[in-house]
Amino acid sequence: MRKQSEELKTLILIKDKLLRNKALITKADKGSSIVIIYQKYYEKKVADFILNNGADEINRKKTQEEKVDNKHKFTRIISRYLELLHLYGNMEGFILIIDP
User: Fold this and answer.
1) Are 28 and 34 in contact (CB under 8 A)?
2) What is the pLDDT of residue 97?
């Protein structure tokens, strides 16, 4: 129970840090990596992609399999972040790139 409580606190701290820094966690452009990126930069990249590629809007529901896969990816991100935090202490200024 104590470990779960500590993990929840850590997740809340990460979420708060992402919100404070206006950043988000997303899949990288290439490969199957996941990155932490500033929201403003992400929105610019998406807008540029739409303008340059003539993308059409579609409606798509995520399958249960995709939801479970995303949950596993996020769990790996948090685990790696905690490992690095334990090793280095302060993660200020770090960019975490995880390639599954």
Assistant:
1) yes
2) 62
pLDDT at 57: 64
- C-alpha distances out from residue 69 to 25, 48, 90, 94, Å: 15, 28, 29, 25
The model carries a pTM of: 0.47
Place of tokens 């950043």: 23
State both tokens at 47. 């807008």
Q: At what angle do helices 2-20 and 64-88 cross, to 10 degrees?
A: 90
Q: Give the torsion through C-alpha atoms of 68, 21, 43, 70, to 10 deg.
A: -10
Q: Which two tokens stand for residue 30?
A: 């290439």
Q: If you average pLDDT over residues 18-35, what whole number do you get?
A: 85
pLDDT tens per residue across span 36-60: 889 998 888 888 887 788 776 665 6
Choose among 77, 94, 83: nearest CA to 15. 77
